[in-house]
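Quick one, tokens below. Sequence please?
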């Protein structure tokens, strides 16, 4: 696609100009402020509705000393020669609308509108856009093929990367693994657990393995402490299991003999046994009478106790609601205070920005101290106002999102609501506590069992039985005391041995625990090493893929190179798409750091590769072309915009034939 003719009227200061390029490359000469960039703007506005500089709120209207000139039609029209030789004429007309309201003497301004034409026929914007989509592939593709700086500088890196992979082809994981024998084992690490044909991607496995390494490392750090704890828990025992068992068997036999002697002593005095029996029965009767007395007393208060239990349950529930309401009220009040403080900050910042005004001193060149061109000054003023408006709008959006009046009022209302809930709960709690006090006052007071006549009679009988038992047992008490002392000594020794035996069991348990921990430590170390190996293979894979993909893409370009990945501090890589441009010494530098000529030639080289891939050429504009001594060759039509102090009006020079431009 090439420009055959371009005609503009009342377009950003150019009243009427026609440029006859005939489809050839050309140069447009003019002093600063004569409208070279305006010609470029006319083409970009005609094709994809934006300024060549990327400025927002672009308008083709002409400005006079007092502001915009009104009641004019601002037109750009171009005839293009398509790659198949077909001629297509595109035209856009921007104009003001005026509407006379009922009863008014004059018409009032009612906004702007744009008229669209294809080959002289009026069309809707949708049809106009669809035609450009069919002819040139849409706005993004046209931007990439007309402006040398758009692809390497203005596009987002991920969008650039997507286009490069489309043009040059991506490299699959299988291609990388197949091309590098050292990655043969990688598939075994990427295989998802529990499956036979499902695999993680390399990035997915890196995340999984890194998380597993962290978890395993944490466990490995904890195990030595657990082993030390288990070792310190092993008790010291001064006998072997065999010695303890033999001694316990001997003591058991001795205990049985002593028990038999005790039984013989007790069997020799029936009177003592009978007395003991009567004493036990008397004590049992006292206990039974006490239990019956307590049961009867509880029955009297059963209903009241049930009511007390229900009120106590309600008190617990109401206290819970009270605490929740108070806490939520405090939280909402704090939130309202924070939002109010934030709103105050934003309002102060908003007021400060509103006081900023355009510095008229900016209209003077700081070097030569002469007034800058009016259109440049106006553009600078507009840019200042746009930036100021954007900053104010951003603050306003923050206020609406973070601390609007409605949000503060809502928090305050929520706090008030929760406070009301708390007050209601306090009143309810007070009422319940009064109910509880009243119920407790209704409980029947039963005198202690020890004050009853029944207790007095039963205990008197029990005392009598004990006196008889003491009298009957005086003969055998001395013998029993000796036997009991001997038996207690034997049983005490047995208990000590049983304690030592439990220590031995505890020691064995701790030794098994230590063995388990050591085995676990070894297993985790093996797992950690496997993960390290898997991650190492992933690093090899990524580096191999980087090399293959970078080589494939860079092979499509003569001098421009692309950095598709960035190495991270942790050794990994991150997707990227940085355009690298060679210096005169052959050193590759990022596009933004290269000089103007190198950047433009890099952009032209990229346009050539994209044009070849899509089979589509577009007219390419080069601004500030006077700073470039050598422009890279390109199959596209190239229009150079050259600053020329000698040309007070725009002058066109066509490469293929001499054609005078009009301005």
């Amino acid at each position: 696609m090439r420009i055959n003719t371009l005609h503009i009227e009342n377009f950003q200061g150019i009243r009427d100009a026609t440029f006859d390029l005939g489809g050839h490359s050309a140069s447009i000469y003019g002093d600063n402020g004569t409208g070279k960039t305006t010609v470029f703007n006319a083409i970009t506005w005609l094709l994809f509705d934006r300024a060549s500089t990327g400025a927002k709120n672009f308008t083709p209207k002409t400005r006079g000393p007092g502001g915009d000139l009104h009641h004019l039609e601002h037109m750009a029209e171009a005839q293009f020669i398509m790659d198949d030789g077909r001629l297509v004429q595109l035209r856009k007309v921007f104009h003001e609308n005026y509407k006379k309201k009922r009863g008014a003497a004059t018409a009032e301004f009612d906004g702007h509108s744009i008229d669209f034409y294809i080959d002289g026929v009026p069309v809707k914007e949708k049809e106009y856009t669809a035609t450009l989509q069919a002819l040139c592939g849409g706005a993004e593709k046209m931007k990439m093929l007309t402006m040398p700086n758009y692809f390497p500088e203005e596009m987002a890196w991920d969008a650039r990367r997507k286009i490069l992979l489309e043009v040059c082809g991506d490299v699959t994981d299988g291609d990388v693994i197949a091309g590098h024998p050292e990655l043969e084992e990688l598939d075994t690490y990427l295989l998802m657990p529990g499956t036979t044909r499902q695999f993680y991607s390399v990035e997915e496995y890196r995340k999984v393995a890194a998380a597993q390494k962290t978890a395993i490392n944490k466990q490995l750090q904890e195990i030595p402490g657990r082993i030390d704890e288990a070792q310190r828990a092993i008790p010291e025992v001064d006998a072997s299991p065999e010695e303890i068992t033999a001694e316990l068997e001997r003591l058991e036999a001795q205990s049985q003999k002593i028990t038999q002697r005790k039984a013989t002593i007790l069997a020799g005095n029936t009177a003592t046994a009978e007395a003991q029996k009567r004493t036990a029965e008397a004590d049992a009767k006292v206990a039974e009478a006490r239990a019956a007395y307590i049961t009867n007393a509880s029955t009297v208060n059963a209903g009241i106790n049930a009511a007390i239990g229900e009120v106590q349950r309600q008190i617990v529930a109401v206290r819970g609601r009270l605490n929740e309401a108070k806490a939520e009220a405090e939280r909402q009040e704090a939130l309202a205070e924070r939002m109010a403080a934030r709103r105050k900050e934003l309002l102060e910042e908003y007021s400060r920005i509103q006081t900023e005004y355009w510095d008229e001193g900016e209209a003077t060149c700081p070097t030569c101290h002469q007034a800058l061109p009016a259109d440049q000054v106006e553009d600078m003023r507009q840019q200042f106002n746009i930036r100021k408006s954007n900053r104010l709008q951003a603050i306003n959006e923050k206020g609406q999102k973070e601390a609007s009046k409605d949000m503060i009022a809502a928090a305050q209302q929520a706090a008030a609501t929760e406070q009301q809930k708390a007050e209601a709960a306090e009143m309810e709690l007070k009422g319940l506590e009064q109910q509880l006090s009243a119920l407790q006052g209704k409980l029947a007071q039963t005198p202690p069992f020890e004050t009853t006549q029944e207790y007095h009679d039963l205990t008197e009988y029990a005392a009598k039985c004990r006196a008889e038992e003491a009298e009957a047992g005086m003969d055998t008490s001395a013998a029993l005391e000796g036997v009991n002392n001997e038996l207690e000594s034997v049983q005490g020794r047995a208990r000590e041995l049983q304690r030592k035996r439990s220590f031995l069991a505890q020691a064995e348990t701790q030794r098994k625990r230590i063995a388990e921990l050591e085995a676990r430590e070894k297993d985790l170390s093996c797992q950690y090493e496997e993960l390290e190996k898997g991650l190492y293979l992933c690093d090899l894979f990524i580096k191999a893929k980087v090399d293959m993909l970078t080589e494939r893409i860079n092979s499509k370009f003569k001098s421009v190179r692309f950095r598709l990945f960035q190495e991270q501090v942790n050794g990994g890589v991150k997707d990227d798409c940085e355009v690298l441009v060679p210096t005169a010494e052959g050193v590759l530098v990022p596009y933004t750091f290269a000089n103007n000529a190198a950047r433009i030639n890099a952009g032209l080289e990229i346009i050539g590769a994209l044009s070849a891939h899509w089979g589509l050429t577009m007219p390419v504009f080069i601004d500030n072309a006077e700073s470039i001594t050598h422009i890279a060759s390109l199959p596209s039509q190239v229009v150079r915009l050259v600053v020329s102090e000698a040309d007070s009006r725009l002058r066109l020079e066509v490469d293929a034939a001499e054609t005078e431009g009009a301005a």
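The chain has a mean pLDDT of 86. The radius of gyration is 49 Å.
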